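Input chain follows. Return structure tokens only.
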Amino acid sequence: MPGSSSPADALAAAVERHPHARAVLLPALSPQGAPSHAYLFHGPAGTGKRTAASALAAALLAEGAAEPEVVAERVARGTHPDVTWVRPSGAAEMLVADVEEPVVAAATRTPFEAARRVFVLEAADTMNDQAANRLLKTLEEPPSFVHLVLLTDRRSDVLATIASRCQLVRFDPLPAEVVAQRIAPEGGAEGARALACARLAQGDAAIARTLVGESGAALRASAEAFARAALHGDTASRPWLALLDTAKRAGAAAGEELERRLEGELELLPARERKKAERDATEGRRRGERRARVRTLDLGLQLAELWLRDVLCVSEGAAELVLAVDRAQEVAEDASAVGAAALLEGVGLVSDTRLSLALNVGEELALEALAYRLQAVLAGDAQPAAV
């Protein structure tokens, strides 16, 4: 592999920034080590999980090979027959068909060339219950030559039955400066905004890339207005509506994208199968829209929570810890109007509301209630309006 003397060296380079991944993976590939038959790589997007999975596959397949570097090059090009890379094919979900033949059935067959077979499954958090159930036996009792590597940006969304059967490998967030350079390499004023987005994303490159775009800028503005309205006793302006509108637009956009994909898939089906597929597609779109809407709303509330956290940092004399560095003046203005104890309570209120969104609560009612509670805490309104 270019730039590495061996596949093991390439794996070491891939996990250099990630102490936990380094501690788990490198000893397992030593002469005295024993690689696990199932790994779950988890951590924010953009931290190098795919690169590490490819490097791990190369290191596993190159063991005992006459030309290990050639094995690694073929794995990198996606041409090695003993590596299977699986991505969700459904409407934002990994379906039974994604794992049935490519993984479950294939895992029973001996390797083509190497002594092992490696299966890499992306977006393990999107696996539906049926696909997970089909994969469980392979995860529990794989053939001795099989290794499965599951990847996720959202560890908490991976089904417990899947995660419990894997060895967890954590990938840590990248430094904000590294993420900022990736999303806005030109620097200048845009670079300053990119740095703020990277810091607010807390190392998640996918979130940072979203925030630096037009829709992300709108979400940031809505979240900031929501938090500041409570700080300044202005919830009568109903600042939660802008957050809800941004989330609904994200859900609608996701639904339209899923519909375009599904239309292409439906055209390939026989007529007798199309009606059921259309029903499934409608349900898939509904779930996809809600998932995108709730994630956007959660991100908006997270940004509001981080605004209060930034204000708290300034009020406590730690301005160097502010994340929204492109809005430092506004953060300082808010810090002069409220005390630390109230800000801490406000952060807790936002966090509690974020948790409640996962329970199918009424989104508008939850945000409206949060706005008035925040105002009562942050602006000293002892009689919050009823909701």
